[in-house]
Each structure stands twice: as structure tokens, then as C-alpha cells.
Design brief:
Elements: E1 6-12, H1 16-27, E2 32-36, H2 42-47, H3 49-67, H4 81-92, H5 95-105, E3 109-112, E4 115-119, E5 122-125, E6 128-137, E7 141-143, H6 157-160, E8 169-173, H7 177-188, E9 192-197, H8 207-219, E10 223-226, E11 229-236, E12 239-246, E13 249-255, E14 257-260, E15 264-266, E16 280-281, E17 285-286, E18 300-302, H9 316-332, E19 345-347, E20 353-357, H10 360-365, E21 370-376, H11 381-384, E22 392-398, E23 404-410, H12 414-426, H13 431-435
Parallel strand pairs: 1-2, 1-6, 2-3, 6-18, 8-9, 8-14, 9-10
Antiparallel strand pairs: 4-5, 5-6, 7-15, 11-12, 12-13, 16-17, 19-20, 20-23, 21-22, 22-23
Helix pairs in contact: 1-9, 3-4, 3-7
Length: about 450
């Protein structure tokens, strides 16, 4: 291969958003190349969803055991962190080779190394210069800069998920889903944990159910320092001191490890997008049209967390869906559009918090006419049979059409039951359609008709 090699398509990123366009176009006979500066597989499979869920499932076992310790379960359940990490790596370690082999078997030429645009149709890939008729940017997201003194002492969630030994005292900067999930995991694994949040935690979720999760988090022994804006991280010997400003002055906490959980931004700046006339925004990444095509360079498309158009959310299934849309538009011309209706989100705490559709606050902002059904579920069989004292729900029903507008769940199996509500909203089902469903019993889904009023 020479510096003048021309590809039909060059994909940047090997995660959910990039894999599908590369595979589909290669199988259609296109000359395709793909490149990643990190191990092949993307964030979800290697540094996010999958490894995190493996660790969290162990914490769920411990939580389940302790809840049932006076109800017939004997013995003890504790997390052996090094052994758990070995188990996690049995899933993540094979991913890069498998992903690259699948691409090569499909005829995709694979590259490793840093990438930057040299022009509208040219890339520098390590020591190579290659040209493409089309490009797909699927570089994911990265932690947003904290811009505080001592930021170099703060570790990422990626670093946390590679810890061979769990630190004794851990602080999480930011009150988003990463902090909640890893704090619950850390606490169940025996660490003393603190979450610092300067605003409303989990702002995309229902306020009432978030407060229930905050209470559960505190009951678990996690120090929730809300209204605390982290101003610096100071190293003092072998420990770290986290400094904060509060409404009442200042505060500080000494810990052994600090994790960044204060949000992520599209990872596109390092590509030198300006050299290719690719318009980008710090919060929204590559600016695209309805077909996920760059508004300023028609040869460029974007998928996954590298672009966040209106309605999109930074979730792996969304990236995969967008990758399929991009592939279709590349192969047959612009016609496919992403469908962002009724995409559920989950915070994998113990128990989990889930949401789909409109929150009550947004529905009121839109001045919709709707009915709210809400209540506690801790006394319901689903929760009481596993000794879980935490559970609540809220559903929003359109008063005119009787269709479901939103559903918000906190409790056992909330991460699964929310998918039923998502399907109902996406399909335009009415409340009576769900109420007349005959579910398997006893299951958490059998509670749905009680949540509809």
C-alpha cells in the first residue's frame, strides 16, 4: 500500500457506531479501511457497559445475600476483587482480537494508531497517508475536562475498571450515572465511598425517583455530598485531599483514589476536523443533518457518541442504530433517519433506576394534558419477596389519547421492565392495551398494570 491508496470508505473507531458501516460496506464490495488508536472493540465492550455490568452483578449478589440474611440465607458473601477482575478480563481480553479478525475476514483493512485529517479527503494514520471517498467518524466520547488544580490526580472510569486492588477510600467527582453505579459497586466491595455533586444528580431522570435513589445510596453508607463543587485535588503523601466549595463555605475529604464521573464529551477534537472542513461543537460533536451526514463536508458521516444531534442520547444501542443508519445511507443514498423515540435509560445501582419517555418536569414544560400515576412498590410481592425496602414508580398518561408518555421505575428488575414500557410508547399503545396484557406471574412485569391507574 502506498500513500496514494484510495478507499471507498474509511471508518474511524471500532465500537458500536463504526463496526456496522465497515462490515456492511465491505460485504457490499466496497474497499474499506478502519482505524482505532485504542484496542479494537470500543468503549462498551472494553471500558464501559459490559465490564461494568460484570462487576455490578457481583455487587448485586452481595446485596441480595445481605437482604436475605435473616430470611433463610446463611453464611457470608463477599467480593474477592482480584478474582472478580480476572473474571471480567476473561470477557474483555479476547474482544480486540475477535473484533479485528471479524473485520479482516470481511475484507476490511485494519489500522492502529492516531488519526488526523489532512484535508477533505485525506487522513494521516500513523505513518501512512490515505484518502477516502467517504468517512465515518465513530470515535466515541471522553471525560469532560474538569479544569481544576490537581486534575492529573483524578482517574477515569476506564482506570477504575482496570484496578487490580480496590482502594480503601474512593471519591467520585460528579453525581451522574457513572458515579452512582461505581459507588454502589465499591461500597458493596468494602470501600468507603463519597460522591460529590454540584447540581441536581441524574438530571435526565425523574426528580422524585432520583431522591429515592439518593436515600438508598445514603442508607448504603455512601457519603452523598450534594451541593459540593470540587475545586481542587491535592496530593498529600500517599493520599489525596478533595477540596470543595459549598453554600456554607468550603469542605475537604481525604481519600485514596478519585474517579471522574462529571460527564463526557464527544471525542473529536484530536482528529483535526477543521482541516477537512468538518463543523464540530464541544457538546454535540460532529454537526450532522437528519441523515447523520456532516453539514459542512458531505463525504463525512458520524455515529455514536462522536455526534449528539437533537433527540439522541449517548448510549451504546443508539450508537449501533446510528451505525446501521449511516451504512444504509452510504450504500443506497440518503434516505434513512435515526429514530430516537422511546429509548430507555438505566442507572445500574442496587436496585436500578430506569426511565423512558417524558419526565413529569418536561411534560409540564410542554404544557401537556396528562395524568400522573405514582406510588411506592416496596410492599409489593416483587420487592417484599426478596426483602427489598426500596421501590417506586411514576407513569405519565396522555389525558386525551390515553397513550403512555413516560415511565420511571426504581426497584427490583427495573432495568428489564422498562423495556416493556419503551415498546408501548414506541408503538403508540394505549393504557388499556397494557392493562389487558396477561403477563407471566409472579414476575416484575406483572406489576405493570398496577402502575397505570
Amino acid at each position: 500500500m502506498t500513500d496514494s491508496t484510495l478507499f471507498d470508505l474509511i471508518v474511524i473507531g471500532t465500537g458500536a457506531g463504526g463496526f456496522t458501516p465497515a462490515m456492511k460496506c465491505a460485504k457490499a464490495g466496497w474497499k474499506v479501511a478502519i482505524v482505532d488508536e485504542q484496542p479494537y472493540g470500543g468503549t462498551c465492550a472494553l471500558r464501559g457497559c459490559d465490564p461494568k455490568k460484570i462487576l455490578i452483578q457481583a455487587a448485586e449478589v452481595v446485596d441480595w445475600h445481605r437482604r436475605m440474611s435473616s430470611h433463610g440465607i446463611v453464611g457470608s458473601a463477599e467480593i474477592d476483587w482480584p478474582a472478580l477482575m480476572r473474571f471480567k478480563r476473561s470477557f474483555t481480553d479476547p474482544v480486540p482480537d475477535r473484533r479485528e479478525k471479524a473485520l479482516r475476514d470481511a475484507g476490511v483493512l485494519t489500522f492502529h494508531g492516531e488519526v488526523r485529517f489532512l484535508g477533505r479527503d485525506a487522513l494521516a494514520v500513523g505513518d501512512y497517508q490515505v484518502r477516502g471517498k467517504f468517512f465515518v467518524i465513530a470515535t466515541g466520547a471522553r471525560p469532560a475536562p474538569l479544569r481544576i488544580p490537581g486534575e492529573t490526580e483524578v482517574r477515569t472510569s476506564t482506570d477504575f475498571l482496570e484496578l487490580d486492588d480496590l482502594p480503601r477510600r474512593i471519591a467520585f467527582v460528579g453525581a451522574g450515572y457513572i458515579s452512582f453505579e461505581l459507588a454502589h459497586l465499591s461500597r458493596r466491595a468494602g470501600a468507603n465511598t463519597t460522591i460529590f455533586g454540584r447540581g441536581n444528580p441524574l438530571s435526565r431522570f425523574d426528580r422524585d425517583l432520583v431522591q429515592n435513589l439518593v436515600q438508598r445510596t445514603r442508607d448504603l453508607g455512601i457519603d452523598m455530598k450534594l451541593g459540593h463543587d470540587v475545586t481542587s485535588v491535592e496530593r498529600i503523601g500517599d493520599q489525596l485531599r478533595v477540596h470543595c466549595s459549598t453554600e456554607n463555605g468550603t469542605d475537604s475529604v481525604d481519600v485514596d483514589y478519585v474517579v471522574h464521573g462529571a460527564g463526557r464529551i464527544p471525542n473529536v477534537d484530536g482528529l483535526s476536523p477543521g482541516a477537512a472542513n468538518i463543523e464540530v461543537d464541544p457538546k454535540h460533536g460532529v454537526i450532522v443533518n437528519e441523515f447523520l451526514q456532516s453539514v459542512s463536508n458531505e463525504s463525512v458521516y458520524a455515529a455514536g457518541d462522536s455526534t449528539l444531534p437533537e433527540g439522541s442520547v449517548a448510549l451504546t444501542p443508539v450508537g449501533a442504530m446510528e451505525g446501521a443508519v449511516v451504512a444504509s445511507n452510504l450504500l443506497t443514498g440518503n434516505h434513512a433517519r435515526p429514530d430516537y423515540r422511546a429509548i430507555p435509560s438505566v442507572v445500574f445501582t442496587s436496585p436500578p433506576l430506569s426511565s423512558v419517555g417524558l419526565t413529569e418536569a418536561i411534560a409540564r414544560e410542554q404544557q401537556l394534558d396528562f395524568v400522573v400515576n405514582a406510588g411506592e412498590t416496596s410492599a409489593w410481592f416483587t420487592n417484599s419477596s426478596v426483602a427489598s425496602p426500596y421501590g417506586s414508580f411514576k407513569t405519565l398518561i396522555d389525558a386525551r389519547t390515553d397513550r403512555l408518555l413516560g415511565a420511571h421505575l426504581f426497584g427490583v428488575h427495573a432495568e428489564e421492565v422498562i423495556n416493556v414500557f419503551a415498546l408501548a410508547i414506541r408503538s403508540g399503545l394505549k393504557r388499556e392495551d397494557l392493562k389487558h396484557m396477561v403477563p407471566a406471574y409472579p414476575t416484575s412485569s406483572s406489576d405493570i398494570h398496577h402502575m397505570l391507574g
